[in-house]
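Minimal example, chain plus zinc ion.
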Amino acid sequence: MLTVYSEKHKLRDSKAEIFGGELVPPFECPRRAEIILERVKTQKLGPIISPNDYGLDPVLAVHDAGYVSFLETCYSEWKAKGFGGEAIALCWPTRTMNAPQIPRDIEGKLGYYALAAETAISGGTWEAALASKDVALTATDHVLKTKGAAFALCRPPGHHAAIDQFGGYCFLNNAAIAAQNALDQGLSKVALLDVDFHHGNGTQNIFYTRDDVFFLSLHGDPMDAFPHFLGHAEETGIGAGAGLTANYPMRPGTGYAAWKAALEDAIARIHAYKPDLLIISLGVDTFQNDPISFFKLTSDDFTDYGQLLGNMGLPTVYVMEGGYAVDEVGINTINVLQGHMA
Ligand code: SP5
Ligand code: ZN
């Protein structure tokens, strides 16, 4: 299987994440991608190529233009205000402050465009996010050509990034940008299956009203887990998108048997939809030793479900999302891809 990778992910090297009331080194760190790349090489998964530059048009096809220019200039505006650290949102237009205008001050803009405070915007974040969407777009174009499968080793991840919000370590929604670009090249239907531990709130937000992308997500119940406010089973899409969002929230301690049953249901629904392309938001934070998650999958389980995904027989793009047990992130990720090819 082809892997697309860009060194530019290293430009996303934030120093601080707010976790448990402390500033800690971010879970979403450059070493994750390096370990995954190393495993691609030692397991001889296949060729590794660099992405092409697709520019901003495919980004603006799913994200708000004001949001995109905010991301581009956020860190320099923050620095221009004299702050010494990284840009972190501290104040939001919450439930008691409706219909906000977008502030001109950078601290106000951060609150407007952030959906969580854990994610700091650091110098280089924008450049890395741009390269990450190029990785997803390049892998998708390869799959459209070959009708096979490819691995987009994206970093930073994307599935929490909504039309106009960042957070959950995500800035641009790589998988959504890739799905939209495939549609813009003439495909009529894309299925986007999110197996990251966390609900793909950003992807759901982008496609919620649409019938050309079927979004399905298996994740920790938002009653118990980040992103806390989206991903309930009752959210099934609206308007033309009615019935084309499917959420499988699962409780703390969920093991592979229950998780696999949810996956099998999702697979049956994808087959019924008859998509031209399958995009997998591949997070391996469902692993039993993940430091911020609560499912109990073993490394062998990743191989097993990769096989189920491969058996679907669809052109498939794997887009890297989360997974924070750094020592096993390469094993678990490549297990899925090898399962797919088995
Ligand atoms: C792409 C991705 O996987 N993003 C995840 C972002 C999660 N950020 C919030 C983490 C808060 C974790 N609280 C967990 C407590 C563990 N005991
Ligand atoms: Zn995750």
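The longest strand covers residues 213-220. The mean pLDDT is 98.
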